[in-house]
Amino acid sequence: xxxIMIVEDDKSSRRFMEIAITSAGYKVILAKDGLExxxxxxxxxxxxxxxxxxxxxxxxxxFTETLRKCNINIPILMVTAKHLPEEKCKGFLVGTDDxxxxxxxxxxxxxRIKALLRxxxxxxxxxxxxxxxxxxxxxxxxxxxxxxxxILPQKEFLLLYKLLSSPDKIFTRLQLMDEIWGMETDxxxxxxxxxxxxxRKRFAPYNDFEIVSIRGIGYRGVITAEKV
Length: 228
Known about the structure:
Structural class: alpha/beta
Helix content: 40-55%
Order of helices and strands: EHEHEHEHEHEEEEHEHHEE
Number of helices: 8
Largest sheet: 5 strands, parallel
Number of strands: 12
Strand content: 15-25%
Radius of gyration: 19 Å
């Protein structure tokens, strides 16, 4: 059974989410702020964290940043009344995986939880199945059916793995540059375009997935074949 921690200082909101998540079959751990959550994580194995931003003692941004600096990659879903774009961007910059604005739609929340847990399992296994393809993170390799593995150039593999790990999610060029090339890189965002074009040419003979351009924004991976 997956164990989900709710970090929320408002008692009624905490109870509302607890009932919905428990009813969906998950085990729930409750914390009133970031400090209490950190203490609980010393004794509890947590699969996913649902996190408010505005809390006493340690807010959601500080809590997320603390985890990521310690290389703790538990998926985090920020749930907050804050809805301005810059606040949402700050959440992603400190390391959250997804973001919802209150009031919460419970059905949407549960779907997001399910998607995050699926994505985390992919990441922790460091292997991804897409149609007839298997991508292996540790070896930067791609295998089609039972054929021999092909090792891709590092940046091409990381770009492909990123897009296919979160199918249909739109990534901006800046996000991809930041996560794959790093913020300190001297490369320009056209570098992403060049690597995308190389991937498209490499996998043009196959129809298991495609990389779709979102005009003026970036790219998303689309899986066009079922896993086999």
